[in-house]
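Researcher: Following up on the earlier apo prediction. This time include the ligand. It's zinc ion, with the SMILES given after the sequence.
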Amino acid sequence: MGKPLGFYGLREAGWRERAFMETQWKRVGFLCDRLRAMLKGAVIKNKSHWLFDPRENAVVFSNFHMTPEVVARYAAVMKERGIPYLHTYPSAAIDFARILKDCDIAPPRFEAVLLGSENFYPGQREWIESFYRCRVYSWYGHSENTVLAGECEHNHNYHIFPEYGVVEVLRENGSAAINEDEAGELVGTTLYNPVMPLLRYRTGDWAVIGPARCACGRHYRLLKETRGRWLQEMLVGKLDNRISITALNMHSAVFDNVHQFQFYQREKGKAELRLVRKPSYSACDTEAILKAFRDKMGDTMDIHLGFVDELMLTERGKFRFIIQDIANETNAN
Ligand SMILES: [Zn+2]
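Model: Understood. Below is the ligand-bound prediction.
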């Protein structure tokens, strides 16, 4: 658990993947001969921290060097070149926006922000749309390539591509979830990997069944919501109780003087809340934050605060609100 599955595939699988992605993005006006800005986990060590990638027809920016000066340069490049699409993760779109805002720099005029590979938390989509003033397009996929599902022109439901993989949503007892609003684990069977086909592969990800039909007229099955690796997205309390990220209300005013935060848990019933403070942060904020969490979680969780300069990203440069690293016994049930 906790390690990505290694697998073999055909060399041309990357181009097939690309064709599926472009098919999805076209729903919000994407054209492959126009540039996109990629901010998705690349480390670029040259002096400017960005470069042009002709294979992707994209300008790739490093996520790992986003100081105010560098972000100001990124924005200038995006504006000079008139880059119409931003392709990134929710957390990076917010991070980039936050620095622009702090530096009083107007955001580049994107036609769409393409967001994949990371969970959306409540309020994030709305915030990103209102900051960049354009449509946010989101999809669900994973590196094992058994499931791909994206939004359409009309709404935010994820349309499952039946020609990509055979997708099941299974309840805990293994039967198929079929009713709208029912949740279950995503299980996928690849349709295009003769080298190492994955059959009924349990993704460990979770989805909520959507309505039967969509106004766009595509006869695809719909999912309302998807969440990655859900066990790690929860804190585990002293009584083995699970506390989900949604329950913690990340939009509370107690975080007004905090840039970013993240929970780090290694032991049941104990978690560290790591904060990147704003200059306006004071001891009163510490008190208010601890009180808010005590009120929510009672005695089931001891929270202590840690002050850091930056938060941890996963190996692939993605952000998670909860880094949970408890021994497997606790995770397995
Ligand atoms: Zn639709």
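Model: Helices lie at 13-25, 68-80, 90-102, 124-132, 283-297, 328-332.
Researcher: Noted. I'll compare it with the apo version next.
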